[in-house]
Amino acid sequence: MMRIKTFLFSLRGKAIISATLFVVIFMGVIGYAILSREKALYLKDKENQAVVLVETAGINFTNAILYQEVGLIEETGVVDHYISDLLNKEKDILTIIIFDNTGMVMAHCHLFEHGKFYEDSKEVIAHEATLVREVKNKDRGPILEAITPLMIGERRLATLRIEFSLKDFYEKLTDLGKRIFLLTIIAISGSIFLMVIGINAMTRPIRRLSRAMDIIDYGRFDDFSESPREDEIGHLQRSFMGMVRRLKEADLQWENTFNSITDLITIHDRDFRIVKANIALAHRLGTTTDGLRGKRCWEIFHDSNGPSKDCLHAITLKTGQPATAETEYPNLEGIFLTTTFPIFNERREVVGTVHIAKDITQEKRFQEKLIQSEKMAAMGHMASGIAHEINNPLNSILGYATYLLEETQDGDKGREELDRIARASKRCKETVKRFLDFGRETPKKIEPVNIKEAAADALSMCHHPISSQRIEVMEEIESGLYINGDKGQMEDVFVNLILNACQAMDNGGELTIKAYRDNGWIKVRVSDTGCGIPEENLNKIFDPFFTTKEPGKGTGLGLSVSHTIIKNHGGTIDCESMAGKGATFIITLPENKYAI
Ligand code: ADP
């Protein structure tokens, strides 16, 4: 049904229908004209013949009737003879009737009609001159009757009526009509066939152009290629192809621009559906831009079932103004600076938004690290200041306490107290040393440090807690890994990490130290299977004095000192951990490739 409708309203359909109608009407009119003309000519001819015949026969009948009247001949015999003679000669005569002046049949080709009066007798005898006319008779079919008064001078003797059959004529006319009809059908079919071919040839390029238009509507420019004709349609084709080329270039330019932006860009409609997404977003999500089209933005960015309460798209749809916020998208694993811009239609209604998300995760981390470094630097200055101040009196206390201890014997009064003073002062000195290390800005001595050796030394320093807590140690350190730096400080870092790991594995566990090359860097991973670090503490563990250990067991300086040392060696230290799932500390340092 739909196809018929499409055909009827198409250019080709309209042309074929109008041309067919024209041919049908034209052939109909021509056929009708031919038939009418044929009929008129034949009737005219027949009428003329009838006039001649009726008038000629009329003379004979007049004479015969006159002779009868004057008694020259016997009654009726001659008239009947003339009648049968005429019937024999003229095959298409149906009847010959002679009416007397009262309207009674006085002679007839059928004798039993004699003496009858017909319904139209009066009318027939009323005619003053010869009359020829066509009469339609239900029983006998079409008839041509010729009536003539039989006159002698001014006197009317009788009226003669001869009826001719038109049956043959009408049969021939019907035959002719049929032939004309057949010819018309052949002519119509032929002309429709030719017209369909002609119209098809004319409209084919237009249809192709129209199909090409549809294709372009869907953005598939490459599917249209056409070699232009040399007529007006060719001109249309050339202009159209020029337009397609310009559209394609514009589309490519826009697509390239859209896709070369590394920020994540999407265009959303009022229904929160993604109309278009750039390649940067598709890559980030491990999909294609087509795969994102039609999805709701909350599925993609938030993995939720509806818009968040502070959804920027919703705000822009409502206000018609751009909206900006720092957002964390769970699906994209990062922090983004997102802005939505309104898209207006010609009536200035907001029909959608452009959503641009700039990944600022690195900047954020860098900022956090900067704050951390600044904090550490400030703490370092303060710590080294305090440490210096305390160091001299502490040295005096320790020196005098040691001197006095040497001067006393076991069991002497005050020896035990002196021993406590000396041990407490030593502990204080240890802490002060850490403070001093913490504040130190550069490594003391720069030399090639073999990572395998530094790790082995640190492990041997931690032998006691490792063996007493039944900790299994696994070393996967590539040989020949060197960095440039202070070996003692590097050992301090490893000792800090190993001791922390041991403290996290009260009931034993595994300690793994891995070291390997990674693109000009050396990575050292120290992992344990201990209690792990809760998420909320992860960004605090490198803060000075942050500790979760009981007083006396931890100072909260181990990791912050390690952080400072690694930073001063041009590297970074990070931690990956989850509560109950152990912890991994990752140190990244620049490799010394030339050390032997
Ligand atoms: P301290 O060990 O003196 O507490 P650190 O700076 O070395 O100070 O460590 C800070 C905190 O980080 C510790 O108190 C502990 O909560 C946490 N931590 C460090 N290493 C680990 C580890 N391997 N497993 C679990 N928690 C750890």
Structure description:
- The chain is of the alpha+beta class.
- It is 52% helix and 21% strand.
- The chain folds into five domains: 2-173, PAS domain (Beta-Lactamase, 2-Layer Sandwich); 223-259; 261-359, PAS domain (Beta-Lactamase, 2-Layer Sandwich), CATH 3.30.450; 361-440, Orthogonal Bundle (Helix Hairpins), CATH 1.10.287; 441-596, Heat Shock Protein 90 (2-Layer Sandwich).
- Strands 2-1-5-4-3 form a five-stranded antiparallel sheet.
- The longest helix is centred in the first third of the chain and has 60 residues, at 11-70.
- The chain is rod-shaped and about 210 Å long.
- The model has no long low-confidence stretch (mean pLDDT 86).
- Adenosine-5'-diphosphate binds at residues 496, 500-501, 504, 528, 530-533, 541, 546-549, 554-560, 583.
